[in-house]
Amino acid sequence: MRVGFIGLGSQGAPMARRIIEGGFETTLWARRPASLEPYADTAAKTAGSPAELAAASDLVCLCVVGDDDVRQVLDGETGVLAGLAPGGIIAIHSTVHPDTCRELAEQAAKQGVTVIDAPVSGGEPAASAGTLLVMVGGDEEVVERVRPVFATYADPIVHLGGVGAGQVAKILNNLLFSANLGAAMSALELGEALGVPRQALCEVVTRGSATSKALNSIAMFGGTLDNLAPIAGALLQKDCRHAASLADNASAPQGAVFDAADNALAIMNHPR
Q: What is the mean pLDDT of the chain?
């Protein structure tokens, strides 16, 4: 399978490298030429546009930031859909609204192209180690076709249902992570009020039954969200908004998870 990869940021760069090292014929495209420089010593080819990349690919993986970025890369005369032949597959690794994936899947199907959503969790360390979690939504047969490519950078690869299901799972994951941040900060603040130093409480709880990835992140950054906010604040805000939209559309109660998530977003100055 020939693979095209777009989105060579901190998450996408190690994913692309794992695909190349896995022996797949790989083509790369980036808005900034500097993003392609680290691959000069690899077997990867480069393209002048997303359309050119797509024309040389059977599977195009997108790891750009948000909904608008995905649409911009796919649409237009130089977009992926302009170059991808019938039978081609697009995998959206970005975390976007499930409706965006479904709309793009309908659009692509008109020219014989299949879209699956495959958001990831684990960050650069997991991608480099080949242990990313990939949450996939789409046709089961198509998912099995691309599984060998995904397996170069991911374990586990979880198929959750139809197009959009992967995004739902990722959004709920990030909602709960935000809630865990908010709950942890509330507990640390309460501890200070009761005379327990924040760093000491972090040390205790990270080794106790109440530990979490969120608390470990807070502890790593000195017991506050000050340094995490510039990295994750806007992304978590986006995903919590998507979660609220999904809940509202399903007439489902938002519940306590949103209250705790809102606490974290407020602390990071990115209110929902």
A: 97
